[in-house]
From TrEMBL:
Organism lineage: Bacteria, Pseudomonadati, Bacteroidota, Flavobacteriia, Flavobacteriales
Gene Ontology MF terms: acyltransferase activity, transferring groups other than amino-acyl groups
GO cellular component terms, semicolon-separated: membrane
Database matches in InterPro entries: Acyl_transf_3_dom (IPR002656), Acyltransferase_3 (IPR050879)
Annotated Acyltransferase domain residues: 7-352
Transmembrane feature ranges: 12-29, 49-70, 91-111, 149-171, 178-198, 244-263, 269-286, 298-319, 339-360
Keywords in alphabetical order: Membrane, Transmembrane, Transmembrane helix
Protein name (database record): Acyltransferase 3 domain-containing protein
Alphabetized Pfam families for the sequence: Acyl_transf_3 (PF01757)
Organism expressing this protein natively: Neotamlana sedimentorum
GO term, biological process aspect, one: lipopolysaccharide biosynthetic process
C-alpha cells in the first residue's frame, strides 16, 4: 500500500533534533565550567523538543493507520510492529552497546574509576535491552547523561503496545474525534494526579509514570483524525491557507522558542500539545503561503537522518569533549568562544548520522518497506 508523503515534516524533525543537540551541548559546556547562554531560552528547549517528537509520532502512525483502514478495512498489526522494529531497533541497539562499551569498560580505565555507569551492568543492560530505559534513571538517578538519551525511545515503544487498543476504540466509536479527545483528557487527568502525587505512590514509580508522556501521542492521534477530515471536507485547509493564520502560527512557535514564560504544569503540556499540533497541521497540509514552507531539500534530508542525530550526538559528545581537552588550540578557542563546542558537536553528529543512515540504517529501512 502506497502512503501519502506529507511535505515539510522531515524538516520539523530536524529542527526538533537540533534543539535537543544544542540543549545537551549547553549542558556539556556548563559541566566543563564555562557559563554559556544562560538567558537564551532556545538553548533550553530540548525536553519540549522530545515532546514534539511524541506528538509527531502519534500523528504519523495514526494517519497511516487510518489510511490503511480506508484502503484495506483494517490495520495489519504484524506489519505495523515489524516496521517499527526495523526502523527503531537496529540503531538503538548499536548505539546502546557502543555506549555501554565506552562507559562500562573504556571510560573507567581512562578516568581510573570503578563504575562510571552507576547502575549494575546486568540489571541496567536488561532494562535497556527489553525497552524499559525510562525506568533506569528513576532507579539510579546519577546515570551518565549519555545513557539517559534512550528513555524517549522506550516511551515510544511502550505506546506502540497500547496502540492497537486505541485503534480498536477508534473503530468502535461513532464520533471518533470526541473519543480520541476523551481518551486524551482521561489520561492527562491521571497523569496530573500522579504528577501532584495525589495517590501517594512510591517515588520511583512516580518518576517512571511521568516519563510516559502518552498525552502527547494521544494529541497526535486526535490531530490525525482532524487531518483526515480536513482533507475530505477542505474546511480546515482553507483556514490554514490564510496569511494571518500562518503568521500567528509562526509567531507562536517563535514565542515558544525565545520567550521563557512560566505556566502552571496543568496548562503547560496542554498548550504545548496545541502549539505542536497546529504547527504539524499547517506545515503538512497548507497549499499556499511561503511562511511555513519547510519542504527544503537539504533540511528534509537532515530530518530523514534525525533519528541518528538524536541517538548519536551523546556518544559524539564524549569524543568532542576529549578533543577540546587534549588539543590546546581547541581548548583556548573553546574558553573564548564556547559556542565552538556546540558547532563541532553538531557537525560531527551530522557526519556520523549521514554515515549511519547510508551504510547501516538504509538496508533495514529497505527491508521495512516490504511490510507496507
Amino acid at each position: 500500500m502506497k502512503h501519502k508523503h506529507l511535505k515539510g515534516l522531515n524538516t520539523l524533525r530536524f529542527f526538533a533534533a537540533f534543539l535537543v543537540v544544542i540543549y545537551h551541548g549547553k549542558h556539556h559546556v556548563n559541566k566543563m565550567g564555562v557559563d554559556f547562554a544562560e538567558n537564551w531560552t532556545i538553548f533550553n528547549r530540548g525536553i519540549e523538543a522530545v515532546s514534539f517528537f511524541f506528538v509527531l509520532s502519534g500523528f504519523l502512525i495514526t494517519f497511516l493507520a487510518i489510511n490503511e483502514i480506508n484502503y484495506r478495512g483494517r490495520v495489519n498489526y504484524k506489519n505495523f510492529f515489524l516496521r517499527r522494529v526495523f526502523r527503531i531497533m537496529p540503531l538503538y541497539y548499536l548505539i546502546l552497546f557502543l555506549m555501554l562499551f565506552f562507559l562500562g569498560f573504556a571510560a573507567p580505565k581512562l578516568l581510573s574509576q570503578e563504575n562510571v555507569l552507576v547502575f549494575p551492568m546486568l540489571k541496567g543492560t536488561l532494562l535497556y535491552v527489553f525497552m524499559i530505559p525510562n525506568l533506569v534513571k528513576p532507579l539510579w538517578p546519577d546515570i551518565p547523561g549519555g545513557m539517559n538519551i534512550f528513555w524517549s525511545i522506550g516511551v515510544e515503544e511502550q505506546f506502540y503496545l497500547i496502540f492497537p487498543v486505541l485503534i480498536y476504540l477508534y473503530l468502535k466509536s461513532k464520533n471518533k474525534v470526541y473519543t480520541l479527545l476523551t481518551v486524551f483528557l482521561l489520561y492527562y487527568i491521571c497523569y496530573m494526579l500522579v504528577y501532584y502525587n495525589v495517590f501517594n505512590l512510591n517515588q520511583v514509580l512516580v518518576k517512571f509514570i511521568l516519563t510516559l508522556k502518552f498525552h502527547y501521542m494521544l494529541m497526535g492521534m486526535t490531530l490525525a483524525e482532524f487531518a483526515q477530515k480536513a482533507i475530505l471536507k477542505e474546511k480546515l485547509v482553507k483556514l490554514i491557507n490564510k496569511d494571518i493564520y500562518q503568521l500567528v502560527s509562526f509567531g507562536l512557535v517563535i514565542c515558544f522558542l525565545f520567550l521563557d514564560i512560566e505556566y502552571p504544569k496543568l496548562l503547560e503540556d496542554i498548550l504545548l500539545c496545541l502549539i505542536f499540533s497546529n504547527l504539524i497541521f499547517v506545515v503538512a497540509f497548507r497549499t499556499r503561503g511561503s511562511l511555513l514552507n519547510y519542504n527544503v531539500k537539504f533540511l528534509s534530508y537532515f530530518g530523514v537522518i534525525s533519528y541518528g542525530i538524536y541517538l548519536i550526538h551523546p556518544l559524539a559528545s564524549y569524543f568532542v569533549r576529549m578533543l577540546i581537552v587534549k588539543i590546546q588550540f581547541l581548548n583556548k578557542l573553546f574558553i573564548n568562544y564556547p559556542i565552538i563546542y556546540i558547532m563541532i558537536l553538531f557537525m560531527v553528529t551530522l557526519l556520523c548520522s549521514h554515515v549511519s543512515y547510508k551504510f547501516f540504517e538504509k538496508p533495514f529501512l529497505k527491508f521495512k518497506e516490504k511490510f507496507r
